[in-house]
Amino acid sequence: MRKYIIISAPSGAGKSTIINSLPLKELRLSFSISACNRAPRKGEKDKEDYYFLSTKEFLKRINNDEFIEWEEVYHQHYYGTLKSEINRIFESKHFPIFDIDVAGGLRLKEFYKENALAIFIMPPSVEELEKRLSLRNTDSPENVKKRIDKASQEIDLAPQFDTIILNDDLEKAIRETQEKIQTFLAKD
């Protein structure tokens, strides 16, 4: 049976840190690389962190129905999951794990239904989230504000996920996430 692990959270809640701390090989999970049309951040690599596409290429792939899901996350900033990426993961005899925004996570859950485990990583508070985003130093103060405004709306969607994990203690959040995934993957 094909199974899918979806991990979503507001930006800065720690979903990428948690995913990167999981024993992916041991769990037979492979990170699903998303596509986007933004420029790479310092240290990011094409086909490793994201498939970096031009806006024209991204829109062409939308028109060619090459995405399982996609979204205009911010004005003219597109992110999505390529069907070819999921095929690549299953061909390697692994299950995909998605590090995805909240709206995309809910779309994937709706698409994959009971074959997917959708986990929402909850920040301790919006104030803590703002602090984390500011300390990351990857966004302007205006973009941090946009992300915080969006985070409040995303937190309201948390009950639509299969499980919510509070990330107020990183080690505990990693352990709880791993346990939820192992339980889900053990089911027939």
In the CATH scheme, the class would be Alpha Beta
**Oligomeric assembly:** single chain
How would you characterize the largest beta sheet?
5 strands, parallel
CATH topology term = Rossmann fold
Shape: globular
* Widest sheet, order of strands: 2-7-1-8-9
Helix content: 40-55%
Supply the number of structural domains.
1
Low-confidence stretches: none
Q: Average pLDDT across residues?
A: 92
Report the order of strands and helices: EHEEEHEEHEHEHHEH
What's the CATH architecture? 3-Layer(aba) Sandwich
Task: Give the structure's gist in a few sentences.
The protein is an alpha/beta fold and 188 residues long. The chain has seven helices and nine strands, in the order E-H-E-E-E-H-E-E-H-E-H-E-H-H-E-H. The mean pLDDT is 92.
Which key terms come to mind for this protein?
7 helices, globular, 4-stranded mixed sheet, Rossmann fold, single chain, 188 residues, 5-stranded parallel sheet, alpha/beta
